[in-house]
Fold:
Amino acid sequence: MREGRPIMSEPALRNAGTPSIKDVARRVTAGLTSERERAVALHDHVRDTVAFGFNSHFDAGPPEYVLSRGVGHCNPKSQLMTALFRAAGFDAYQHFVAIPNTILRGTLPASRSWLLPAVLCHSYVDVLVDGRWCAIDSFIVDTPLLNAAKAKLAAEGVPLGYGIRVDSTNEWDGRGDAFSQFSRELMLDDHGRIDDLEAYFGSPQYRHKLIGVRFNTAFKLMGDLGVGPINAHLDRLRRGEAN
Structure:
């Protein structure tokens, strides 16, 4: 979690209600007239209000849930970003690829690192802005984590880990591609644009399973006990305290 904004527990979240994606999109883009301004405003809202981390729905968290929870990794944040873009009238898709797990080196405590599959199913967003398709995942990594992770990579002299690449960015100008995690060089396989997530989760392409059980199911059963230690480790990393 980010300092000053604690992540709500599951019971508290259920009692707090969830925001409407349409209302959030309308509020964030209010008064902005150009497509580019509206797209960038939505991007920055997801980057700044949903910290990089994990919630108990894992890849399957509905957009409203992820927004209310205030935490999510690449796949739920990409689903949220796609939903907000569409609510604001943009043509947008969640695009899945397979990448090596080295991007997440150091993001999990040692007691949880064995959970990482060798190949990750990562998603970014394809969005049409001013007649041009942009591929972005620059909204995924929040700024405190990006800065702390870059410092770690510089100190270690390695090109990737802690959720980022050494040349990652979480800034986007609405005119081209921007990535905080993905790069074309990392891609092992292109799974394409996915609208039917449940079908994708049931396909052989989906790698996030433990002994045949989807992480979506396992982490939902564990609740905060499953994701809490991981998010606490990420908070220590943001503060420069993680080893």
